[in-house]
């Protein structure tokens, strides 16, 4: 994924903060390392990036896993690294399950009635479980499509879970956030515009993939002229 290793991120951030040695391990806390990871998580866990008008998600963090239901058990486990569930697809019956609210799930009678078990058609997440309705009457293979939680860097050789093109954006965001923590607000503000331009440029490359999914309707010139008359 990323090219910069954790130890390189920290060295770069320390350099841009003026080689402040007091931040290496103040009161036993590696602030430089913490600030790198906070910038990384800020970038990857937001649905909308500040200063950029379009919503964005990281394809590298979109994944799926299979889970098998048990006859009479209304729940399956949420993947341990799951941040947001996108969809659940029943591959046994070739259908997508519908997401409902937990209040609606609780309003359904007979959830524990074995005579009312059937193929699940709906789901809702609550804490570490996904509740299914109807309660499964058999073993079904369900694919959980979800956005995973980025892995925090800890070892010196760790890299990010996203593309190497984002390394510079993470580093510069760490600089901006660190300057704010150090009360250097004017300098942080000066860095923000350059950071937003950098992020927009990277995002535009990703958006090129959407071109294949869009349909363009062109109005015949003769018809357009008739509308004007």
Would you mind describing this structure in some detail?
- This protein has 229 residues and is an alpha+beta fold.
- It folds into two domains: 6-58 and 162-209, no CATH class; 59-148, no CATH class.
- It has six helices and eight strands; from the N terminus they run H-H-E-E-E-E-E-H-E-E-E-H-H-H.
- It has a four-stranded antiparallel beta sheet with strand order 1-8-3-4, with no helix packed on it. Strands 2-7-6-5 form a four-stranded mixed beta sheet, with no helix packed on it.
- The longest helix has 23 residues, at 185-207.
- It is elongated, with a radius of gyration of 24 Å.
- It starts with 5 loop residues before the first helix and ends with a helix.
- The model is unreliable at 216-220 and 222-229 (pLDDT under 50).
Name a few traits of the molecule.
6 helices, 4-stranded antiparallel sheet, alpha+beta, single chain, elongated, 229 residues, disordered C terminus
List the helices and strands and how they pair.
Blueprint: H1 6-16, H2 31-45, E1 62-68, E2 75-77, E3 82-90, E4 95-96, E5 98-99, H3 102-107, E6 122-126, E7 129-133, E8 141-148, H4 167-181, H5 185-207, H6 221-228
Parallel strand pairs: 5-6
Antiparallel strand pairs: 1-8, 2-7, 3-4, 3-8, 6-7
Helix pairs in contact: 1-4, 2-4, 4-5
């Amino acid at each position: 994924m990323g090219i910069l290793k954790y130890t390189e991120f920290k060295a770069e951030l320390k350099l841009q903060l003026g080689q402040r040695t007091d931040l290496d391990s103040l009161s036993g806390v590696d602030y430089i390392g913490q600030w790198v990871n906070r910038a990384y998580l800020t970038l990857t866990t937001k649905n909308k990036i500040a200063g950029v008008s379009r919503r964005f998600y990281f394809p590298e963090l979109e994944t799926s896993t299979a889970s098998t239901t048990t006859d009479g058990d209304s729940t399956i486990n949420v993947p341990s690294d799951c941040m947001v569930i996108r969809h659940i697809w029943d591959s046994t019956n070739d259908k997508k399950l519908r997401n409902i609210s937990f209040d609606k799930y609780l309003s359904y009678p007979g959830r524990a009635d074995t005579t009312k078990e059937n193929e699940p058609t709906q789901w809702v997440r609550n804490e570490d479980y996904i509740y299914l309705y109807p309660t499964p009457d058999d073993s079904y293979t369900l694919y959980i499509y979800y956005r995973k939680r980025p892995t925090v860097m800890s070892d010196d050789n760790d890299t990010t879970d996203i593309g190497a093109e984002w390394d510079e954006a993470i580093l510069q965001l760490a600089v901006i956030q660190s300057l704010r923590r150090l009360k250097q607000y004017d300098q942080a503000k000066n860095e923000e515009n350059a950071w937003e331009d950098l992020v927009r440029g990277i995002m535009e490359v990703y958006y090129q993939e959407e071109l294949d999914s869009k349909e363009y309707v062109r109005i015949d010139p003769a018809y357009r002229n008739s509308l004007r008359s």
